[in-house]
């Protein structure tokens, strides 16, 4: 009963550690969202796009003109000395609204591009985090294997001094230790590089990167069909293309309206000077003044509409192509996810067998019943399976991270 309680306590402790590690990763994602300069640039572009709609939906600025007659124009009312004109242009009905809708859709597309950049950044952060975890474990496992070889070296030295084996066994261990130490130095250099990249993603100079003792092995909560549906509905690249299709609808409406007349309304105010006439000196109004812009060159406006029609067709093909590309990418990632899941079970089992085998071989070697080659071969298998198990755990979570990216999460 006491043993059962201890086992349950250990399991709960491991679960608590994994949850804490996931919370730690979420804190790194939050830092990346707050600090990454590339993501900030995309957000600023979106904020700039929001400022376009108020510009394009406004009427054109009114025109005011002043004219002074160097030679006054004599009229019955008196000499005309100066004139002020004011006019306001009004585009065809719905033109300004179409411009506003185009700007709004463009801003929405910028927002989806920002969300795409954020999803990609989060996937990069998670992938680098899993690489850091694996590399840390590789360093730890390599050090443990070097320690095992040191134990074997002592054992080989005892047998050599007893005259039971030649010095070749010690030389082989020294060679194996040298190879592992060289591999360890490479792993340490790789760790420094990975942590440097990780800090750059978060745009932070000083940061202690904490990883769990054992990486969580959560399965993906959705099945394949649901994931594909989510990609089709929520992927930010596809959403961007859908919004751009809506933008082209309004651009076509705008192009059609630009081929219709614009109107202007205005007035003139004329300053009249004095002369001997009793009516002289009375300023005169000329009101109203109405103008119209006639779009005579129809080929130009027809070409504007046709341009948008061709762009709509191109955008449909582009979206269809993007859907195919994303499905192909997902199929490869899903394959990697299933493969990593299988490898976790395989290498966990293989590692247990290798650990039991090496203990038996070590005992047999101590009693003189085993060749030393068998110890080194099994020790290499122990190292290989330990590394492959951790790599499988890392690969599985990296695949889950990328699937979440494809789904726009």
Description of the structure:
The chain has 409 residues and is α+β, with helices and mostly antiparallel strands. The protein has one domain: Outer membrane efflux proteins (OEP) (Up-down Bundle), CATH 1.20.1600. It is built from nine helices and four strands. Strands 1-2-3-4 form a four-stranded antiparallel beta sheet, with no helix packed on it. A hairpin with a 2-residue loop joins strand 1 and strand 2. The N terminus is likely disordered.
Q: Briefly, what CATH class?
A: Mainly Alpha
The geometry reads as elongated
Over all CA atoms, what is the radius of gyration? 38 Å
Q: For the largest sheet, list the strands in their spatial order.
A: 1-2-3-4
SS field, number of helical segments: 9
Order of helices and strands: HHHEEHHHHEEHH
**Most strands sheet:** 4 strands, antiparallel
Q: How many domain regions?
A: 1
Question: Mean pLDDT across all residues, rounded?
Answer: 87
Beta-strand content bin: 5-15%
Distance between the termini: 44 Å
Number of extended strands: 4
* CATH architectural category: Up-down Bundle
Structural class: alpha+beta
CATH superfamily: Outer membrane efflux proteins (OEP)
Question: What is the CATH topology?
Answer: Outer membrane efflux proteins (OEP)
Low-confidence stretches: 1-17
Helicity range of the residues? over 70%
